[in-house]
Amino acid sequence: MKPLYPIDWRRNEPARTLACALVPDTPNRARAAAGAALLTIAMGGAAIAQQPRGFLETVKRHATLTSTVPENGDQNPYAIVVAPAAAGKIQKDDVLIDNFNNISNLQGLGTTIVDYSPASKQTTLFAALPRQLPQCPGGVGLTTAMTMLKSGWIVVGSAPSNDGTTRTRGDGCLLLLDPNGQLVDTWTGPDINDPWGNMAVIDNGTTATLFVSMVGFGIPAPSVRDPDTGFPVTLHKATVLRLDLTIPPGKPPAIKSKTVIGDGFAHRADRSSYLIGPTGLAIAPDGVLYVSDALENRIVAIPDAAARTTSAGTGEEITRGGLLNRPLSLIIAPNGHLLSCNGLNGQVVEIDPIARKQIYAQWIDANQAQSPPGNGNLFGMAIRPDGKAFYYVADDMNTVMESR
Q1: Residues 26 and 136 in one domain
Q2: Which residues contact 76 (CB under 8 A, 6 or more apart)?
Q3: Domain that holds residue 133
Q4: N or C: which end of the chain has fewer CB within 10 A?
Q5: Beta sheet of 142-148, edge-to-edge order
Q6: Which residue has the higher pLDDT, 45 or 20?
Q7: What is the mean pLDDT of the chain?
Q8: How many Å separate Cα 287 from the centre of its chain?
Q9: Rounded to whole angstroms, how far apart are CA atoms 370 and 396?
Q10: What pLDDT is attached to residue 230?
């Protein structure tokens, strides 16, 4: 396949580091000896204190890997997924990225998925879907709701528009692609309405469970304003939907059941962001699903997410405000902490979900063209397979980045 056009790489940006030292004041030899002993103890304590409190403090640099713009000019990369297996055109550990905007930078009209190979450093077009697709209400506009299963199948969400705004928004769908990028099936229904947030997945090979937020229910055009706030009307109809799949050998996945496990989340239209609602989803080993509730500026937890038969409403609040600034994508770091990128600045925030504490924030996009720096530039994230770094998209430059 023909590689995409090369780009000018962005600068590597070192992360901020903190250091301290203890120096004794010893006017004579006796006091010097005592001071040396105390210094040994103190330095030991300082060394402990300087141990990284979290994953982000081990990140020192950020590097550009590739452009995400294919030959049709699609822009605004949203989802980023690391391939769990080799299948079709995809090699294990390849990085798949989809685009939400078209060449005119209109939202909800992107139709392409590109494949970056860390091994070859090449980026190729993986899938180009038709813009008009009768099976998908409103057509195709690919979102952050994307995953690749171990069996090689790709599931990706569509939240389409005809003019780049929610004025012409369609209800969308979930699209099923084979590992060669061919459309195989389309999933729709009354509980599927603009699949939006990055998917959380439990994949057992022959079965899988997907978690995805739905943020389109009843959303009007952004010109419809709340008279009290002046912002587009905020509704509280967004949901988190669980899809339990069966995956017969050699056959496409099929939906066995669908369960709304979270509802009542705030969501609204937005001129610059298209839709704002619950975006990040991350499933922990203990079965707790964490959700970034963007408009409420908080992270919440839904317990027993894979087995529950009823909705937990908006879940239990884990943390709110502080370093968070409209939290979007959500992933689990190797140390069990949550990483959430901010929608209103270029920071990613680390959270200890057990202690319910925000640990650290790091600027990963400090583009001064926005205010605050990096505002609106971040969206999808994924942990690198070796657990030592993470990938993320930079919407302002249409690139895939890697922390190091």
Answers
A1: no
A2: 99, 100, 101, 105, 107, 110, 395, 398
A3: 52-403
A4: N
A5: 142-148, 154-158, 173-177, 183-187
A6: 45
A7: 89
A8: 19
A9: 9
A10: 87
**Contact status, residue 172 vs residue 138, Cβ threshold 8 Å:** yes
Q: What is the pLDDT of residue 277?
A: 97
Which single residue is written with the structure tokens 């930078």?
Answer: 105
Across the range 137-163, mean pLDDT stands at 98
Residues 35 and 180 in one domain: no
Structure confidence by residue, pLDDT tens digits, 252-291: 999 999 999 999 999 999 988 999 999 999 999 999 999 9
Give the CA dihedral 65, 142, 219, 192, nearest 10 degrees. Answer: -120
What's the number of domains the chain is made of?
Answer: 2
Per the domain annotation, does 325 fall within a domain? yes
Which residues have CB under 8 Å from 248's CB, separation 6+? 206, 254
Same domain, 27 and 62: no
Q: Is the peptide bond before 372 cis (omega within 30 degrees of 0)?
A: yes
Please say if the pLDDT value at position 222 is more than 90.
no
At 132, the amino acid letter reads Q
pLDDT category at 51 given cuts 50, 70, 90 is low
Same-domain check for residues 242 and 348: yes
Establish if 6 belongs to a structural domain.
no
Q: What is the 3-state secondary structure (H, E, C) of 247-260?
A: CCCCCCCEEEEEEE
Q: In terms of domains, do 42 and 124 share one? A: no
- Tell me, letter by letter, the H, E, C secondary structure of the chain: CCCCCCCCCCCCCCCCCCCCCCCCCCCCHHHHHHHHHHHHHHHHHHHHHCCCCCCHHHCCCEEEEEECCCCCCCEEEEEEEECCCCECCECCCCEEEEEEECCCCCECCCCEEEEECCCCCCEEEEEECCCCCCCCCCCCCEEEEEEECCCCCEEEEECCCCCCCHHHCCCCEEEEECCCCCEEEEECCCCCCCECCCCEEEECCCEEEEEEEECCCCCCCCCCECCCCCCECCEEEEEEEEEEEECCCCCCCEEEEEEEEEEEEEEEEECCCEEECCCCEEECCCCCEEEEECCCCEEEEECCCCCCCCCCCCCEEEEECCCCCCEEEEEECCCCCEEEEECCCCEEEEEECCCCEEEEEEECCCCCCCCCCCCCCEEEEEECCCCCCEEEEECCCCEEEEEC
- Whether residues 31 and 117 share a domain: the answer is no
pLDDT at 27 over 50: no
